[in-house]
């Protein structure tokens, strides 16, 4: 599987580190608008080609798969163009700005029999599968609490009058998109879509959410997902059932260690060896690519569609409007 990357942020560095650890996967090209931005990554990971023209990247016959890690607002356009050129795509979370963008990407991928993945680490982690395997031991679920909060250095810039992409409605930023999306995936991959959703957000004067609490109401229980980029917290997940509770250390992003509490008994579970969480999602994508298992890919894709539906509803309840929403209204 030969990959070309779009973007030069820290997540691309993590992704290429994961690529190095897998057989039959290599990065053959990196793209950036400025060559000097891509040069350090290309040198670090021995990537042979640097492109500053997207069309050249998409036409490169040595590239099977495009990894999209551009600003959130460009996920849709870059993924769509790659699919149009016959390339498979891994697109970073959040998948797109709107649910309709995800629907259009899905339709194009299925029409052209191409693989399209959302790069969300949580659901591919071995410890997350362990949670799925043991959650029935908790009995009837009553409460789910998730907190993933990480003070952003870009928040200081926001306070000083700048508008970094991650805090810019024009670039589809915000705490829900950037960080609380992990909590949303954690809950929905276990329990499906909620009956109702409401997002109570702390918003900057430009309308973007810097932190907030997502409340998801299911038939017999409630899930509460807190995510912040303007404060720090002890990150965790707690799933409470009538027979016990499950505690995930350090939050939904990495699922680093699990503590299963049943009565007076506590069991510690940890099936993850690799410290880079992107390793496990890339491992899953490699196997699907190797087997050309479009059915499994499209099952994941339709799941991502359901998450984007809930994500958009949550955003709407908080009155968070992206440039992509306005564009959608005018189309």
From TrEMBL:
Origin: domain of life: Bacteria
The organism of origin for this protein: Salibacterium qingdaonense
GO molecular function, one term: nucleotide binding
SUPFAM superfamilies membership: Glyceraldehyde-3-phosphate dehydrogenase-like, C-terminal domain (SSF55347), NAD(P)-binding Rossmann-fold domains (SSF51735)
Residue ranges of every copy of the Gfo/Idh/MocA-like oxidoreductase N-terminal domain listed in the record: 2-118
Annotated Pfam families: GFO_IDH_MocA (PF01408), GFO_IDH_MocA_C3 (PF22725)
Domain GFO/IDH/MocA-like oxidoreductase intervals: 128-246
Protein name: Predicted dehydrogenase
């Amino acid at each position: 599987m030969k990959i070309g990357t779009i973007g030069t942020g820290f997540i691309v560095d993590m992704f290429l580190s994961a690529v190095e650890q897998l057989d039959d996967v290599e990065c053959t090209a990196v793209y950036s608008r400025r060559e000097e931005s891509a040069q350090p990554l290309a040198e670090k990971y021995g990537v042979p080609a640097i492109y500053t023209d997207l069309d050249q990247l998409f036409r490169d016959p040595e590239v099977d798969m495009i990894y999209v890690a551009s600003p959130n607002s460009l996920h849709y356009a870059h993924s769509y163009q790659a699919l149009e050129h016959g390339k498979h795509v891994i697109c970073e979370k959040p998948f797109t700005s709107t649910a309709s963008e995800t629907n259009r990407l899905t339709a194009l991928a299925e029409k052209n029999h191409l693989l399209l993945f959302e790069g969300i680490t949580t659901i591919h982690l071995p410890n997350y599968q362990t949670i799925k395997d043991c959650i029935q031991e908790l009995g009837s679920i009553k409460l789910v609490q998730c907190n993933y909060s990480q003070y952003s250095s870009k928040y200081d810039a926001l306070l000083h009058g700048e508008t970094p992409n991650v805090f810019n409605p024009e670039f589809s930023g915000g705490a829900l998109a950037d960080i609380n999306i992990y909590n949303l995936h954690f809950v929905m991959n276990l329990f499906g879509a909620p009956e109702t959703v409401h997002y109570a957000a702390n918003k900057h004067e430009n309308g973007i959410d810097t932190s907030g609490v997502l409340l998801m109401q299911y038939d017999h229980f409630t899930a509460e997902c807190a995510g912040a980029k303007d404060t720090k917290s002890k990150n965790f997940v707690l799933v409470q059932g009538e027979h016990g509770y499950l505690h995930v250390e350090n939050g939904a992003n990495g699922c680093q260690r699990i503590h299963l509490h049943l009565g007076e008994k506590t069991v510690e579970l940890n099936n993850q060896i690799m410290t880079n969480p992107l390793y496990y999602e890339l491992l899953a994508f490699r196997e699907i690519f190797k087997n050309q298992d479009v059915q499994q890919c499209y099952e994941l894709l339709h799941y991502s569609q359901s998450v984007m539906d809930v994500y958009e509803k949550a955003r709407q309840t908080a009155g968070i409007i992206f440039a992509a929403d306005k564009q959608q209204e005018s189309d």
